[in-house]
Design a protein that fits this description.
By secondary structure, this protein is an alpha/beta fold. It is built from eight helices and seven strands. The protein binds nicotinamide-adenine-dinucleotide. GO terms for molecular function: 3-hydroxybutyrate dehydrogenase activity.
């Protein structure tokens, strides 16, 4: 379905981003990866699917590095057809204890980076009259939780950004949508499980049960593979007229 197309997924060396990158590669897309950590393992996993793989180590809090990454995609991969704005970080603290530098980093990485990638990807998508922008928001783009002020503000922001750009492209072959996962068992969430286990003297399994029980009625984690399948649907022609949605995959979290 995506043969001949290039997908760029930010924050795709781990977790949800890697799951979406793998799903897009399975559909034949060339993939440009981004993120920190075990880059070689992520590249090898995608390359094993028989597609061309690129990588750029841009820090998503740095607009100049983002511009350099987008230039690489243009120069070496013919531009970005599927842009997945996924990179994200978390910090948990009450607002009066929230370090200002963490607030700035979360807003830059979880929200502003999507503005910088999108504004640079859109001209090429418009020229081809086809494109997909998928913003990985969160249930926290729709509802709040205590002690996550920066994350909730950034995720609500990216849902608003998604709707605006969807309107600006509404008569074109470019669609812009957000995905809103509930709990997904990735390093970002494992840190919160570890903190909960340490604070409550709980086992890892009990901390997971407690975490899910508070918010996610299915009591099941959403998986990166399921989110990858949702991304494929949003890239398909069946989704040509899906525009500006914030699509939950959250085990019922936001139905409550
Ligand atoms: P993760 O920690 O597994 O992956 C985050 C990725 O972002 C990694 O590849 C990391 O290297 C990259 N990254 C972090 N800072 C970066 C920076 N400054 N520049 C470039 N790359 C950077 O986390 P995840 O859970 O897979 O999260 C991915 C996205 O999904 C985030 O936007 C997160 O907010 C969102 N999300 C996660 C959950 C969940 O339960 N895990 C739920 C809803 C939304």
């Amino acid at each position: 379905m995506l043969k001949g197309k290039t997908a760029l997924v930010t924050g795709s060396t781990s977790g949800i981003g890697l799951g979406i990158a793998l799903a897009l590669a399975r559909q034949g897309a060339r993939v440009v990866l981004n993120g920190f950590g075990d880059v070689d393992a992520a590249k090898a996993e995608v390359a094993a699917l028989g597609v061309e793989v690129g990588y750029h180590g841009a820090d998503m809090s740095k607009p100049a590095e983002i511009a350099d990454m987008m230039a690489l995609a243009e120069r070496d991969f013919g531009g970005v057809d599927v842009l997945v704005n996924n990179a994200g970080i978390q910090h948990v603290a009450r607002v009066e204890d929230f370090p200002p530098e963490k607030w700035d980093a979360i807003l830059a990485i979880n929200l502003s980076s999507a503005f910088h990638t999108t504004r640079l990807a859109l001209p090429g998508m418009r020229r081809k009259d086809w494109g997909r922008v998928l913003n990985v928001a969160s249930t926290h783009g729709l509802v709040a939780s205590a002690e996550k002020s920066a994350y909730v503000a950034a995720k609500h922001g990216i849902v608003g950004f998604t709707k605006t750009v969807a309107l600006e492209t509404a008569t074109t072959g470019v669609t812009v949508n957000a995905i809103c996962p509930g709990w997904v068992l990735t390093p970002l969430v494992q840190k919160q499980i570890d903190a909960r286990a340490a604070a409550g003297g709980l086992s890892d399994a009990d901390a997971k049960k407690q975490l899910l029980g508070e918010k996610q009625p299915s009591l099941q984690f959403t998986t990166p593979e399921q989110l990858g399948e949702l991304a494929i649907f949003l890239c398909s022609s069946a989704a040509d007229n899906v525009r500006g949605v914030a699509w939950q995959m959250d085990g019922g979290w936001t139905a409550q």
